[in-house]
Specification:
It is built from six helices and 16 strands. By secondary structure, it is mainly β. InterPro entries: NA-bd_OB-fold, RADX.
Length: about 300
């Protein structure tokens, strides 16, 4: 059928009654958001953001309500979609934006694609990767992997991807989303090493929409975390510790989940795998720890400093 592209949509969407189908690749995926309220009677108050791209650039796509349980898990980073009967809306101004792996890619930030179950009912098709043709010009998924030796030089809030061998994972903890609120964030701390430094990555992992992965992070697994944010202590603290925290668009993968993921082609991922082959599993297991309370950042060693 006749296709359109994202760049053409941005220029013509207001004047068109019928929008042609779109062929796009998912580059980023947000966690699933529940926006239900007791006074509003909605069956499935869910929403998820994706960043999708074709040869002309990148745009946000929003999956609404009952389409979320039906499609969210099938729409992975790297998945190619054929979309028809979607709608176009002005962008929601307060949403978070992932940092694209390709800094040259054009971003269409004024509008977003809206996928709904009715008015009109969107038609979504997933194109298997082996059927994707090079002449479609769809961009590849690109990453921003860093090694542990590079981390200390990165600025606060810098976005990056990491891979490491888990040496410590703490118990799941809860933090209130807001003071006096009944809603909690669930998170756990983990350490991962990659052989480039004596220090591990310190990772603050909030539960994303991947409970099956979050609950099974354990020592000796290969852990990949994407769209992490660097947290630097900006005071002149000599014992300052750099750690990484998840963002709204973070994805987490452990051993058993890596097969077929786009990052397996990345050079730094391949270097890490080479390093793990040179390590003795028995030696690494002796250094691993699981569970317990992990106070972080470390409190000062005296009350005066506190």
């Amino acid at each position: 059928s006749k296709l359109t592209n994202l760049g053409h949509l941005e220029m013509t969407w207001r004047s068109r009654v019928h929008l042609h189908p779109l062929l796009v690749r998912i580059l980023h995926k947000s966690r699933l958001r529940y926006y239900g309220k007791p006074e509003k009677k909605m069956d499935m108050p869910y929403q998820a953001y994706f960043e999708v791209a074709d040869g002309s650039g990148m745009m946000s796509m929003v999956l609404w309500n009952s389409l979320c349980p039906e499609w969210y898990h099938s729409m992975k980073v790297g998945t190619v979609l054929l979309l028809d009967k979607y709608t176009i809306k002005n962008s929601y101004p307060f949403k978070t934006h992932p940092t694209p792996g390709d800094s040259q890619m054009k971003r269409f930030a004024t509008i977003e694609i809206s996928l709904n179950v009715r008015d009109p009912p969107t038609e979504i098709s997933i194109i298997p990767e082996e059927m994707v043709k090079p002449e479609w010009g769809l961009p590849e998924v690109k990453y921003r992997f860093i090694t542990r030796s590079e981390l200390d030089d990165l600025p606060n809030n810098h976005s990056c991807d990491v891979i490491g061998l888990v040496t410590f994972v703490g118990r799941a903890e809860r933090a209130r989303k807001r003071e006096y609120s009944e809603d909690f964030w669930l998170y756990r701390w983990a350490h991962a090493i990659d052989g480039t430094s004596d220090q591990p990555f310190i990772l603050e992992l909030f539960a994303t929409s991947q409970p099956d992965v979050f609950e099974h992070i354990h020592p000796m697994t290969y852990l990949v975390c994407t769209q992490m944010r660097v947290m630097q202590d900006l005071t002149e603290n000599p014992s300052r510790t750099v750690y990484l925290t998840t963002s709204n668009e973070s994805q987490i993968f452990i051993t058993g989940w890596h097969k077929g993921q786009p990052y397996t082609k990345d050079a730094k991922v391949k270097n890490f795998i080479q390093w793990t082959k040179s390590q003795s599993e028995a030696d690494q297991i002796k250094k691993t720890v699981i569970g317990g309370y992990y106070p972080f950042p470390q409190p000062p060693d005296s009350f005066l400093k506190y």
